[in-house]
Design a protein that fits this description.
Number of strands: 4
Radius of gyration: 18 Å
Shape: globular
Strand content: 5-15%
Bound molecules: glutathione
CATH architecture of the largest domain: Up-down Bundle
CATH class of the largest domain: Mainly Alpha
Strand order of the largest sheet: 2-1-3-4
Order of helices and strands: EHEHEEHHHHHHH
Oligomer: single chain
Helix content: 40-55%
């Protein structure tokens, strides 16, 4: 089965969570909107599948995944479906729901990060909401990031079931890959705040480094399939927001 991932080209965004799972598993997939423009590739193909899918349930927004005749939207939902098939989910319903819960929490954090540079509306320029962005990011740095990352640090510390600390059970799951991605994004967006915070996050940092060293993931990160972080994505670096 060749999976088809539909996500905006040029940014990592929420699609990157799905990409990391596909890449780490060595799955066969195409990143449709990054293909050359045409009936089966590029942004036009994405919009066509978004607005009028030939079968399956339509999504409000990317990312969504086409797997045969199934069309699955919502990042965490895609991973709930995909990761067990690729050997990157824990076994058993309770553990799967726990991984899903952690993924939803990471997606919540992403939304808060997005709202630091677009606190009023996604349709307005950053420059037109800069004052609100400055206020919002102060609270993210001081209150929200310590709360979220402290939670993941405790979750890792509390899970003593494996030799190597992972978020769920005793084997790497998509939740670990997603935490890696969020740490990468925060290092790009808020390098100063993140440097300070990471002094109190040894388990998160160790997990991040172990994920980065996984052979397939390392190969992906070094490849041109990994779009660099940039200021069109969700994690953006505006130095004034990291003051
Ligand atoms: N909760 C959804 C959010 C999807 C989402 O916000 N997608 C963004 C790109 S990362 C988008 O294209 N939004 C367009 C819109 O909301 O109008 C998920 O986790 O997949």
């Amino acid at each position: 089965m060749t999976y088809e991932l539909y996500y905006w080209p040029g940014v990592q965004g929420r699609g990157e969570f799905v990409r990391l799972t596909l890449e780490d598993a060595g799955a066969d997939y195409v990143d449709v909107a990054r293909l050359p423009d045409g009936p089966h590739g590029g942004t036009q193909a994405l919009l066509k599948m978004l607005e009028a899918p030939p079968h399956g349930h339509p999504s409000l927004a990317p990312p969504f995944l086409k797997a045969g005749r199934d069309l699955i939207g919502q990042t965490a939902n895609i991973l709930l479906y995909l990761a067990p098939k690729l050997g990157l989910a824990p076994r058993g319903e309770a553990a799967r729901l726990w991984a899903h819960q952690l993924q939803l929490t990471l997606i919540d954090l992403m939304a808060e990060v997005h709202d630091t540079h677009h606190p009023i509306a996604g349709s307005l320029y950053y420059e037109d909401q800069r004052d609100e962005a400055l206020r919002r990011s102060r609270y993210l740095r001081r209150e929200r990031l310590p709360k979220y990352l402290g939670y993941f640090e405790r979750t890792l510390a509390d899970n003593a079931s494996g030799r190597q600390r992972v978020l769920v059970g005793n084997a790497v799951s998509y939740a670990d890959l997603s935490l890696f991605q969020v740490i990468e994004g925060l290092r790009y967006a808020f390098p100063r705040a993140q440097r300070r915070l990471e002094k109190r996050l040894p388990a998160c940092v160790a997990l991040h480094d172990r994920m980065a060293a996984r052979p397939r993931l390392a190969a992906y990160l070094a490849s041109d399939r990994r779009v660099p972080f940039n200021n069109d994505g969700i994690f953006r670096h505006y130095p004034e927001l990291d003051a």
